[in-house]
Amino acid sequence: MAQPNFSLQDKVILLTGGAGLYGRGLAAMLAASGAQLILASRDVEKLKGVAAEENAKGNRVLAESLDQGDEASIAALHQRLEQRFGALHGLVNNAVLRPMKGTLAPADQFAQSMQVNATGLMLMHRYFGGDMARAGRGSIVNIGSIQGMIGPSYELYEGTNMGDMPPDYFFHKGGVENLTRFYAAYFGPHQVRVNNLAPGGFFNHQPEPFLRRYCEHTMLGRMANETDLGGAVIFLLSDASSYITGATLPVDGGYTAK
């Protein structure tokens, strides 16, 4: 019996973001997997630094400019990559904008968030998923959040001075989950798979009371680190997951299962 193929060797993968909390770890693991990796975000200079670090290890990483809130920028990136590589093999939608800092933040910040995290995300599927569909293969992995699956846990923040929780993040991460199902159905007949990861909290030196409460709520007793998301992303991009689409996979140490 043939063994499942977890390899991304020589596959062309686009990762939006690539220098933030989730993105830097994903960039390192995807680059090490043998893929031709393209990183894209507004801060292309920072991405060039990431690309240089990874290329020094013998990996293949390019940095490109992308403003996901601007359709013209998405279209321009699509044209550049299509001319150079043709249809991508994989797309990881990791970029996110979080302008709201609390419940009572200005309403125009909610709209600004949606321009990137809703409209922009839809356009990434339209442009790059459309190419994959015409090629008859491909995998899209959306980086959602457990905050798209559950309500806020205010008790974690008591006495921490970490601030309020913003409604835009819960709204668009919930939307990512159902947008994933939509495009899984839309692209499915063309053998393009679309799945959603729902990461839990990422360790970033949060105050001790928050860390203690959060870790007590997980089955594994810790927050996520920079390597915890990459394995699931590689699996969903690879042929080993060829019969998985439209799914949301929590990567949260058991937080949502407890």
Assign the CATH topology: Rossmann fold
> What is the 3D shape?
globular
- Could you report the average pLDDT, rounded to the nearest whole number? 96
Structure annotation, total helices:
7
Helix content: 40-55%
Uncertain segments of ≥5 residues (pLDDT<50)?
none
Class by helix and strand content?
A: alpha/beta
Structure description:
Helix 3 runs parallel beside helix 4. The protein has 258 residues and is an alpha/beta fold. It has a 7-stranded parallel sheet, with helices on both faces. The radius of gyration is 18 Å and the shape is globular. The protein is 41% helix and 15% strand. It has one domain: Rossmann fold (3-Layer(aba) Sandwich).
Summarize the entry for a quick read.
This protein is α/β, with parallel strands linked by helices. The protein has helices at residues 21-32, 44-55, 71-85, 107-135, 167-187, 208-217, 230-237; strands at residues 12-16, 36-41, 60-65, 90-93, 138-143, 192-199, 248-251. Strands 3-2-1-4-5-6-7 form a 7-stranded parallel β-sheet, with helices on both faces.
List keywords for this structure.
258 residues, alpha/beta, Rossmann fold, 7-stranded parallel β-sheet, 15% strand, globular
How are the SSEs ordered, and which strands pair?
Layout: E1 12-16, H1 21-32, E2 36-41, H2 44-55, E3 60-65, H3 71-85, E4 90-93, H4 107-135, E5 138-143, H5 167-187, E6 192-199, H6 208-217, H7 230-237, E7 248-251
Parallel strand pairs: 1-2, 1-4, 2-3, 4-5, 5-6, 6-7
Helix pairs in contact: 1-7, 3-4, 4-5
